[in-house]
Write a structure and sequence with these properties.
Blueprint: E1 3-10, E2 16-17, E3 25-26, H1 32-37, H2 42-45, E4 47-56, H3 63-78, E5 84-88, H4 94-104, E6 111-114, H5 127-138, E7 148-152, E8 155-158, E9 163-164, E10 173-174, E11 182-185, E12 188-191, E13 216-220, H6 228-235, E14 240-245, H7 253-263, E15 268-273, H8 288-291, E16 294-295, H9 301-313, H10 318-327
Parallel strand pairs: 1-4, 1-5, 5-6, 6-7, 13-14, 14-15, 15-16
Antiparallel strand pairs: 2-3, 7-8, 8-11, 9-10, 11-12
């Protein structure tokens, strides 16, 4: 049977509440052994083993844990200790972790990230079936070479395209524009398409020898946006700034002047958008050639931050970074 290894990081899927109908809960309280024991039928899908990497809510996910996860996944595959890997994770930053891993895992074997919107102790908890489906996908040879997959609420998403769209709804994850990668229902899997951008073995990014990632801050643009927060980020050590811009990545004239100023000081500026979907194109309302900025193309602010960190860690200049945003 396929060998599927679970890397547990906590999250709502491992959360505990005071009762089955209580909204408040503590994320990451349930350990991986208890989590696996709560899902019947896993042994019919694969030889399943588990390992606790962290026990946190994913709002506490950080660069260090990303590097640890990437190293562990790559080590398991390099040693041929798993045919597929499932990562249990909180939903708040699932899209960022999955995107980081799809750019840094160096194997075509399946890596599947799953979570839950209701804690493990909740009435109608969604975690057990999500984990069952995730194991089924990780055990499926057809899931090879699809990059990191987010499997949740019977849907399969490409890590590049997925985003969280609702604070509490179990159908919170969507893939604007490109749509689902496939579906998984009680272990029955269907694939609709292939990922459209380079990932895993075709990605140029690596975490080998990377002890820490460069600081990149996200600043949210709005009407009457003051420029002082931009200067504050740079003063605090940011090597890159991602702007969650208005519309097509726009900021006020005053803010744009400060962005141009910091770009001349070799701080990389990426213009993304606070809008749910759509491209941020170069030189439309804002002149990137004059500002010295990078257009995020189709990546939202949080994924733009991930890609920019990896680009800076690799020592890319601004032109190479712009090319990376087009390709990834």
């Amino acid at each position: 049977m396929p060998r599927v290894h679970i890397l547990a990081t906590g999250g709502t899927i491992a959360g505990k509440a005071g009762s089955e109908v209580e909204a408040g809960y503590r994320a990451g309280e349930v350990g991986v052994k208890t989590l696996l024991a709560s899902v019947p039928g896993l042994d019919d899908l694969a030889q399943v083993t588990g390992e606790q990497i962290a026990q946190i809510g994913s709002q506490d996910m950080d660069d260090g844990l990303w590097l640890k996860l990437a190293a562990r996944v790559n080590a398991l595959f390099a040693a041929d200790e798993a045919d597929g890997i499932v990562i249990t994770h909180g939903t708040d930053t699932a899209e960022e972790t999955s995107f980081f891993l799809t750019l840094t895992v160096k194997s075509d074997r399946p890596v599947v990230l799953t979570g839950a919107m209701r804690p493990a102790t909740s009435l109608s908890a969604d975690g057990p079936l999500n984990l069952y489906n995730a194991v089924a996908v990780a055990a499926d040879p057809k899931a090879r070479n699809l990059g990191v997959i987010v499997a949740i609420n019977d849907d399969l998403h490409s890590a590049r395209d997925v985003t969280k769209s609702n604070t509490t709804d179990v159908q919170t994850f969507i893939s604007p524009g490109r749509g689902l990668l496939g579906t998984a229902s009680y272990g029955r899997i269907r694939y609709f398409r292939q990922p459209t951008h380079p990932h895993t073995t075709r990605s140029e990014f690596s975490t080998d020898g990377v002890a820490r990632l460069p600081r990149v801050d996200i600043l949210y643009a709005h009407a009457n946006m003051p420029p002082d927060l931009i200067r504050a980020s740079v003063a605090a050590g940011a090597r890159g700034i991602v702007i969650a811009g208005m519309g097509n990545g726009n900021v006020s004239t005053e803010a744009a002047a400060v962005l141009a100023e910091i770009a001349r000081r070799n701080v990389t500026v990426v213009r993304s958008t606070r809008v749910m979907s759509g491209d941020v194109a170069r030189n439309v309302e804002m002149n990137d050639d004059e500002l010295g900025s990078v257009a995020a193309d189709q990546l939202n602010p949080q994924k733009s931050r991930v890609l920019l960190q990896l680009c800076l860690a690799q020592g890319m200049d601004r032109d190479a970074i712009q090319d990376a945003f087009y390709r990834y």
